[in-house]
Hints:
It is built from five helices and four strands. It has a single domain, classed as 3-Layer(aba) Sandwich (Glutaredoxin). Strands 2-1-3-4 form a four-stranded mixed beta sheet. It is α+β, with helices and mostly antiparallel strands.
Amino acid sequence: MRHPGHKICWRYSASRARKAAEPKGRRVATAKVEIYTKMFCGYCHRAKRLLDSKGVDYVEYDITMNGAKRDEMVTRAPGARTVPQIFIDDKSIGGSDDLAALERQGKLDGLLGL
């Protein structure tokens, strides 16, 4: 049998973690951000989490079952076969690792217009 307060403590911890992960306020990015993703993609989740942490709005295209959007992605980023594929102001940025590299180099905020 569980301790009566166990569930309450877990909810409190989860609630605190969610609040800590939320950005302090939405910042308005002047750039248009689009991301092509697939269901259950860890790299997609990582890229979206970085954008969310910056408070950036983006358009997500789930190509799991959408061949037309997948073809569109390949046309926009020739040679791209993996997800996520991220575009900022219609320029191909690449994938999750590329987005993280831009953040480490201090260049992402400039591209996003933050």
